[in-house]
Amino acid sequence: MRGGVFLALCFSPGISGDPGHRFGGAGWFIDGDAKEEDCPNGNEGEVIIAVMESLTMDNFREIPAGGKPFKRIYVALMLWFVGRAIQAAARVDEAVGEEFAALPDGFTFSLGVLPRGPAMIVGKGEEGQVRYRGWRLAGQRIDLQMKIKNLEGALLMFTFQESTAVATARNRLIVDGEVPAACAIVRILDRVEVYLLPKIIAKLAVKRYPDWPWEEKVGNRIRIYAGAILGFR
Amino acid sequence: MYLPGYYEYSCRVKIVAGHDALEGIPALLRHVGARRPLLVTDKGVAGAGLVDIVRQAIGDRLEIGAVADDVPPDSDLKVVHRLSALYRENGCDAMIAVGGGSVMDTAKGINIVVSERAEDLMKFSGSGALKRPLKPLIAVPTTAGTGSEVTLVAVIKDHERHLKMAFVSFFLLPDAAILDSRMTLSLPAPITASTGMDALTHAVEAYYCLSKNPLSDVTALAAIRLISGNLLKVVRKPSDREGRLAMANAATLAGMAFSNSMVGMVHTLGHATGSVCGVPHGVCMAILLPYGLEYNRHKREVVMGELLFPIGGPGIYGQTAPEDRTNRVIAYVRQLNEDLHEMTGGRHARFLGEVIDREGNPAVPRERLPDIARTALGDGSIFYNPEDLDYDDLLMVLEAAWEGMPLDSGRIRKG
Amino acid sequence: MFQSAHTFVFCSPAKVLSGNRALENLPVELAGMDACRPLILTTAGLAVRGMERIMAGAFADSQLTVGFFTGVPPCPDRELVRTLYGLYRDRGYDSLIALGGGPVLTVAKALNIAVSGEPEDLEAAAAGTLESKELRPLTAIPNLDVSGYEMTRYADLASLSLTAPTAIPGLLVLDHRTVPAEDRKTTAAAALLTLTQAVEALLHPGRNHLTDAYAYGAARFIMENFRTALKNPSERGSRLALANAAFFAQTAFDNLSGGKIFCLGMAISRRCAVSPGLVMGLLLPHGLLMEMDREETPGKDLFLAVGGAEDYALVEEGMGLRKTVDRCVELLLELQSLIPDYPRSIRDIGLKKSDLEELPGAADEVTGRGTLALPEVRYLLDKAWETRF
Lengths: 233, 415, 389
What we know:
The structure holds 3 protein chains of 3 kinds. Chain A has 2 domains: about 1-60, no CATH class; about 70-230, Nonspecific Lipid-transfer Protein, Chain A. In chain A, helix 2 packs antiparallel against helix 5 (about 180-195) and helix 5 runs antiparallel to helix 6 (about 200-205). Helices cover about 40% and strands about 15% of the residues of chain A. Mean pLDDT of chain A is about 80; it is low at about 1-55. Chain A has 7 helices and 8 strands. By secondary structure, chain B is an alpha/beta fold. Chain B has 2 domains: about 15-185, Rossmann fold (3-Layer(aba) Sandwich), CATH 3.40.50; about 190-410, Dehydroquinate synthase-like - alpha domain (Dehydroquinate synthase-like, alpha domain). Chain B is built from 15 helices and 9 strands. Chain B has helices at about 25-30, 45, 50-60, 75-90, 100-115, 190-210, 215-235, 240-260, 265-275, 280-305, 310, 315-320, 325-345, 370-375, 390-405, and strands spanning about 5-20, 35-40, 65-70, 95-100, 125, 135-140, 155-160, 165-170, 175-180. In chain B, the strands form 2 sheets. Chain B has a 6-stranded parallel sheet, sandwiched between helices. A 3-stranded mixed sheet of chain B has the order 5-8-7. The mean pLDDT of chain C is about 90. In chain C, about 60% of the residues are buried. The radius of gyration of chain C is 21 Å and the shape is globular. In chain C, about 55% of the residues lie in helices and about 10% in strands. By secondary structure, chain C is an alpha/beta fold. In chain C, helix 4 (about 80-90) crosses helix 5, helix 10 (about 260-270) runs antiparallel to helix 11 and helix 15 (about 360-365) packs across helix 16. In chain C, strand 6 (about 155) and strand 7 (about 160-165) form a beta hairpin. At the B-C interface, strand 1, helix 7, helix 8 and helix 12 of B face strand 1, helix 8, helix 9 and helix 13 of C.
């Protein structure tokens, strides 16, 4: 019954011609079981399947959700990289370290894409060490979940067409968890973006490009890149 | 008019406004199939006779299931659960919330509990937890105002565990907001002043913050025009019914604006000041509003200049060169605070150092400003402010707001 | 500012998403309304313009399967609603998406009433007595082929006119991909129809702060963007601004009622097969001039919407309405210069003098409430008949 469009009609052999479609009359369309009251002449259970002329394969179809594999891979890579960069930055940059220090031990947050990822998870261990914890959300207790509503929204963020601030302002994200923690994470993300991106792009990604001493910025940048790529802990 | 690259807007609350809007409540509830509402309010509102006015307006066309008039000034989890039990015991099927922000939040909290049969309200915190419409809720604001009759947020405090739970959902919106001039006729001058400035701040911040959009803009402009034409009038003459109705409309319009466009630094600091020092929200808003304009003006000069039209009037707008308009807007806001200060016999504070608590002591000691700055870093409105804000920026603004001095624009770090 | 002396009621139930990648938010918005199986309704014409690919892209990565029906005709009738009712129920859909203009929204509203309750509810909706129960989610994705009724409570099937506030779509999505560039006449018609709704809302005796705010927004967007939309149709922002304006004006209209220019324009348009917006454009200056004779006309506020704050600030006391008329005439002349064979009079669109007698009555039927003053409508008609721009 699924190849085209079928409607179940119930009518009694006593009625000829027009099957008696009426608004407000005795029923309309019955899918599946015919009810006695819908068949006034009483042939209970007699169901005839017919194809309505006005519905054809040309003007109706079902569109299964496709995929966007290349976009998913790109966003997954970016999330992986940012997650590991945050891990590195927590060791290398004092301000990032302080933001994490102010969060409770065991605190875990995720940044991911609805409905089914990709995602990245970063958590603070029992002794305060910040770790990238992969991309599998299932089974993990996550205190703060930042969910980008769809893949295209994630793409806008990770191609820097929309900064974190603009993306938030445009409701591209759903934040589930404590708001003060979310503020801290966004500040951390901003700092990490300044390290990872050349100034010309980072200026689009953050509200106010910071005025850090050049040597410190470059030095930390190298350490964070190395940490992200090589996974130094 | 500005069209952003992307925006979202919704406010599906039915607005009923007029000198006899309350009389429409029975029909509204009947329309949604409700017959026995719980009336939620607080002692202040009941004491001012406002609940009697509501009951008289409803008459015998509707049976009120029960009246709960003990909502505290700060919404509380235990109260929410207790009043939910009252709702169920009395076979209620709807709510009428008569009061200010705390009453509205409490009513929204009760609505979650009774509609979802929630044992643990915490489970519904955050956004997205509610999936279906709740029971009918009619909001009757008694200040002009917080705008919470049109916001989809409720904040409930768990005083035992020192937690603040925020609930965000489309389904929290009241079905209708009743704006009736009788509800604010007896509002004392200092509260009229501070709640009026609260509404003005909502509208102004909605107009220049990052989620600015066409519908929040048009509602904000309408609100500002009404406030600038009526706030001083109703402080001077509280019985001015037309003025009171205009302010009630303005507060709701401002609520529609900011609930969609969000707010910025003024609320970031205002919430923190309220949280650390217990200063009422509207008082903080009035004091900090000029600073919000000053701090962000390098990013929003043109947009702020447009505000001179509703705030100063078309004549002033036409005569003022575009490059001077923002200056005049800031001057107008400061002057408004000065006028309100004078008209309330000094009770409307113009700067943080001037705010006194119920016992007459300074409410914001200077030594607490660093605490306020630190707390402000955790406020969600910080995302929507046009310019970045770190601890040093926040402290700088607080210091200036404490003394009542304009911001030194050279000290603002511009992104 | 105008203060209504009476109690007013205002409601705008729609949530609007407008701009870049708005369509991609559909899955999460539907989930928020507890829906996961939408049926999209559209026309063959729109399907040919690539809408299926666009909607497929919007739902890609969502894990949702959507139904796509492209057979909505220009004048849908109850038969179609009946057919789609069966499709909806048979396939287990739980929400509707109306992708297109007036006819698509009409079918979608009627269908939504039927599937959310009983088919019999359509009778109640026709009588204006439908219960106010919330319907299943209905999303509107309109374009610049504007009928004026898309986001309102009205739906006119052939031989069945429905009025149901609950039928107003709960979600509106405006995305440049589904607001494609149209030919100049269609764009002009959309602008003029929207402007008429906005202007008449600002003059309506029942107007309030909210209808004023929405109408102001609509008029500003039209006046600031119509030129670009016509001369440079590939420019997305101006098309989107016009689509936004249509929604704002329809919201004000829905909360008030049609004025004489709107209703007469509709009535003439139905007789002559000329789009209603173009007809309304020809009536607009005359309708405004008629207002000048009234005593308490809020002409100045009207000019704020049509002229903008800068010009308004310079206008003299009492000159607001006159300036508004001037702006509208300038607009018409500009449209004439930009669009070949743009009608310059209602005499040029196939109307005969003998039609004039019946038109006021026909106009009154548009609003269905007997709210128009027929002599005024006749006067407007006569004036428009005498004029060639």
